[in-house]
Amino acid sequence: xxxxxxxxxxxxxxxxxxxxxxxxxxxxxxxxxxxxxxxxxxxxxxxxxxxxxxxxxxxxxxxxxxxxxxxxxxxxxxxxxxxxxxxxxxxxxxxxxxxxxxxxxxxxxxxxxxxxxxxxxxxxxxxxxxxxxxxxxxxxxxxxxxxxxxxxxxxxxxxxxxxxxxxxxxxxxxxxxxxxxxxxxxxxxxxxxxxxxxxxxxxxxxxx
Amino acid sequence: xxxxxxxxxxxxxxxxxxxxxxxxxxxxxxxxxxxxxxxxxxxxxxxxxxxxxxxxxxxxxxxxxxxxxxxxxxxxxxxxxxxxxxxxxxxxxxxxxxxxxxxxxxxxxxxxxxxxxxxxxxxxxxxxxxxxxxxxxxxxxxxxxxxxxxxxxxxxxxxxxxxxxxxxxxxxxxxxxxxxxxxxxxxxxxxxxxxxxxxxxxxxxxxx
DNA sequence: CCAAGTCTTAACCATACAGTTAAAGCGTAC
DNA sequence: GTACGCTTTAACTGTATGGTTAAGACTTGG
Lengths: 208, 208
Known about the structure:
Two copies of one chain form a homodimer. Chain A is mainly alpha-helical. Chain A contains eleven helices and no strands.
């Protein structure tokens, strides 16, 4: 039976290591991350990381899988909702994603970097299943197009454009900062403005 | 005076090393790239890489700087053109960027990954100058908005949305492939379709 | 042929890193 | 108080890697 030796029992320490791994992998990227950094960050030593998780790549896979399994589902939960109008979906996705990426600015860049470094890891870890259902959204777009409310557009094009528009400031932040003149405070204003402007832009793009 | 020992003179070998470095750094990323791979790819040995370029990071910086210095200028050459209508700019940017990224599918992901791994490198290598001029485009947007041709929008929002929409399929290709069901041939169709659909979507997004 | 520059060979060094191990410390439960 | 389990300490191994060096081979211009 487990015997907590201090105020930090086994599961808490396990979690602290995982949290530290999240921070280090997210900011440095898997290839450049060092297990020693993770140990320092967690306030433990390398031996304990090995004790709980075995190898670095197992830990890295856990972190990567976690973010893949939360990033897109959060998106598709809104887009796939059968009880929400298309217009509301656009507003909600933009708001939800902007909130999330402002709170966790490294996730988008991390995902892009990891996907680039080892594209196969995605299917290896989350399987080859087609992902969350887009049928609902597809039908919605078709119906609205039929009714003349929007121009016809494929789900893929719509989703890609929406994600791209929302995510780009976080994936290429340094480039945005430098070439669009968005240092420090200007970036905050830019993001606040984007929250307002983007839904209108996307919805206008759909209009017939 | 230079003495070419074979059909490959000094500058050619230098270039072959640089080309190999491009291939390796672009696909693996700087952190995971190995100088030995570059040597193998170039058909030379590590000693010669040192002979010409010194350190790995010097080579990596050269590759990174090259892509930064060609990626955005190519974009801004179109966007900043004073003798082109806004509508034409959108068409031209989409066409030009789609052509480029289809021909060089790793560049966008590489840039995103490198920017994430070491954001400071951008300003360190290309300086802190504000980048190519956006004044022309800004004025164009303002004038067209004044004339009631488009809704008012800031240059930053416009450019970010445009870049995001064009670049996202290449930056997050594995995610697009898996979750939008775009394996193999479907991706080609998707990109071909995007070429047609995107300019219309963006221009519709601008309409008042 | 000689000199100069290009390139290879085959080492080598120092370092960083992931992974491993053995022993002991230490708190809690019984 | 003792057994059990969490955790640390402090080493060590093996290997990968970046960087360096010295000697010589090859090619060509003069």
